[in-house]
């Protein structure tokens, strides 16, 4: 039976959990004293732990010696994805975290229908990233950054931007062996030509994702999956 994974900011010999993590253990997994779990700090360390107390809205754990784990690919995708309608960004963050994305940067673009993101939604996306990291066994937590204006982005060493008019396909991309891969995807309706030109000037090479029309929440995951496929999940 797979041991539950629990995110903790720091791995101490004794860990007291409250809030969301405790609620999940108490009311979803229904843990009892003696249950074994795995704790991880989202920065590359994890440890075996045992439940010593469960009740009253809190869970107490006795943790073993932390150990360094390596489950992250050498090529780290950074996903620059436009603000999307409804709850579509949640789907992107959830699946992108499983695919190895290390950072999500929501973008405010010319065609973005949402023009901002409230603090509550940002925190929810961060919780989704934590849950996806727990479920997929990642050793590091993906970051979800606050929204940024596309015009405020800085140059990148290696980048791709999804664009239906691009001459180069994903199969023709020369991916780096390691480092960060900046991957940009637009809103419903795509980036404008001016935005694509601006991104190209920052080091994002336009790339063609194929003849089929992809949803705005699908295209960024195609880019992330391509990075994972060439350099390992």
UniProtKB/TrEMBL annotation:
Q: Which Gene3D superfamilies match?
A: 3.40.1280.10, Hypothetical PUA domain-like, domain 1 (2.40.240.20)
A matching Pfam family: PUA_4
Q: Where does this chain mainly localize?
A: cytoplasm
> Where would I find the Ribosomal RNA small subunit methyltransferase E PUA-like domain in this sequence?
18-59
Q: Which GO terms describe its biological process?
A: rRNA base methylation
The reply on keyword Ubl conjugation is no
Q: What is its EC number?
A: 2.1.1.193
Q: Which InterPro entries match?
A: Alpha/beta_knot_MTases, PUA-like_sf, RsmE, RsmE_MTase_dom, RsmE_PUA-like, tRNA_m1G_MTases_N
Assigned GO CC terms: cytoplasm
The regions listed as transmembrane in this protein's record are none
Residue ranges annotated for the Ribosomal RNA small subunit methyltransferase E methyltransferase domain, each copy included = 73-226
Q: Which terms in the Gene Ontology molecular function aspect does this entry carry? A: rRNA (uridine-N3-)-methyltransferase activity
Q: Which top EC class is given?
A: transferase
Q: Where in the cell is it found?
A: Cytoplasm
Query: Sorted alphabetically, which keywords does the UniProt record give?
Result: Cytoplasm, Methyltransferase, rRNA processing, S-adenosyl-L-methionine, Transferase
Reactions performed catalytically: uridine(1498) in 16S rRNA + S-adenosyl-L-methionine = N(3)-methyluridine(1498) in 16S rRNA + S-adenosyl-L-homocysteine + H(+)
Q: Which PANTHER family match?
A: 16S RRNA (URACIL(1498)-N(3))-METHYLTRANSFERASE, RIBOSOMAL RNA SMALL SUBUNIT METHYLTRANSFERASE E
UniProt similarity note: Belongs to the RNA methyltransferase RsmE family.
What is this protein's function? Specifically methylates the N3 position of the uracil ring of uridine 1498 (m3U1498) in 16S rRNA. Acts on the fully assembled 30S ribosomal subunit.
Q: What is this protein called?
A: Ribosomal RNA small subunit methyltransferase E
Specify the taxonomic lineage: Bacteria, Thermotogati, Deinococcota, Deinococci, Thermales
